[in-house]
Specification:
It is a single chain. The protein is an alpha/beta fold. The chain has 11 helices and 12 strands. It has helices at about 50-55, 85-90, 100-105, 110-125, 130-140, 150, 160-175, 190-210, 220-225, 245-250, 255-260; strands at about 5-20, 20-35, 40, 65-75, 75-80, 95-100, 180-185, 210-215, 230-235, 235-240, 310-315, 315-320. An 8-stranded mixed β-sheet has the order 6-7-8-3-9-10-12-11, sandwiched between helices. Strands 2-1-4-5 form a 4-stranded antiparallel β-sheet. Helix 4 (about 110-125) crosses helix 5, helix 5 crosses helix 7 (about 160-175) and helix 7 packs parallel to helix 8 (about 190-210). It starts with a strand and ends in a 5-residue tail after the last strand.
Length: about 325
């Protein structure tokens, strides 16, 4: 573990009670986030990215979701075991989150300024209404929204999707958190707006020095934003390492398949894209051993026994695969 780590997730297991029984959406996941860095978490839909983030925030759906085991160490405290009142002090103040769909995350019947102001009212109880109003306008200005004095009087449906996402970022940053979790912050936005949001987050991260956990299924976004990458598959960690090593020297067959699937400008035109054969297994029908073995071109008999252990191939480049045991 790195001494600069501000967050350490150790052997996290998160489960849900369903009609098919209890399923593990996150199974023995470990990673760390260092001060001032951007950690990208990537994988297909349903791989456990968002559930991992909700576990860190202690916002799992109740009563079905629970952290079964593992530790979430934040600044030396295991927040997985904290009472709700203590966690409430950390959530928002120290760790903030931008949710996937801003239209559902924002309250449609309250003005933009009131919703940002609520953050100040809850976290800075000594502020008067004039200071709260000025603070809301300043946060909108900081995230690049034009005419912020006008926007604070508007409702979410009156502004564009890109602006709504900027409002979410403003609310998340109002308390100057140590860690910002961004769950698919550019989903459903057009390419131009996506680029603006990514540039904004990079700029704010450089200004504030906060750490960011960037959750996405888009490898291009990871390449542009992240310092290190965590690749997940079916609730497990497949590979983790510095972004340049993941993209230039991928180790896990799943990571290699993802990278080969990216459309490229160079090379033969009208060439079929690479595909990873098969489907992601349902969480209540997981194979024994390695969860990727049914789709893996390098599968061996040992892959069907138990899930592969972590192998350190290079400095900080780790992979869960029997090819490297």
């Amino acid at each position: 573990m790195n001494k600069d780590a501000i967050l350490r997730v150790e052997n996290l297991v998160t489960s849900f009670d369903t009609e098919a029984g209890r399923i593990r959406a996150v199974d023995d996941v470990s990673f760390e986030v260092r001060k001032g860095e951007v950690l990208g978490i990537v994988g297909e839909s349903g791989c456990g990215k968002s559930v991992t983030a909700l576990s860190v925030m202690r916002l799992l759906p109740q009563p079905s979701g629970r952290i079964e085991s593992g530790r979430i160490m934040f600044s030396g405290t295991n927040i997985a075991d904290l009472p709700a009142e203590r966690m409430h002090e950390i959530r928002g103040n120290r760790i903030s989150m931008i949710f996937q769909e801003p239209m559902t995350a924002l309250n449609p019947v309250h003005r933009i300024g009131d919703q940002i102001g609520e953050v100040f009212r809850l976290r800075y109880q000594g502020m008067n209404e004039k200071e709260i109003s000025e603070g809301s306008v300043e946060m909108l200005r900081k995230v690049g929204i034009s005419d912020p004095k006008k926007r604070v009087e508007e409702y979410p449906h009156q502004i564009s999707g890109g602006m709504r996402q900027r409002v979410m970022i403003a609310m998340a940053l109002a308390c100057k958190p140590d860690i910002l979790i961004a769950d698919e912050p550019t989903t459903a936005l057009d390419v131009t707006i996506q680029a603006q949001i990514l540039e904004l987050m990079n700029q704010l991260q450089a200004e504030t020095g906060m750490a960011i956990i960037f959750i996405t299924h888009a490898l291009g976004v990871i390449a542009e934003t992240s310092d290190r990458v965590l690749v997940m598959y079916a609730g497990k960690v497949a590979e983790t390492g510095p972004v340049d090593k993941i993209f230039n020297k991928p180790l896990h067959p799943y990571t290699k398949g993802l990278l080969l699937s990216i459309p490229r400008l160079e090379g033969e035109r009208k060439k079929k894209l690479h595909v990873i054969n098969g489907m992601v297994p349902a969480l209540h029908e997981l194979p024994t051993g390695c969860r990727f073995r049914n789709r893996c071109p390098n599968a061996m008999p040992v892959c069907g026994t138990v899930h592969p252990p972590v192998s350190i191939v290079e400095d900080e480049h780790l992979v869960n695969c029997y090819l490297y045991v």
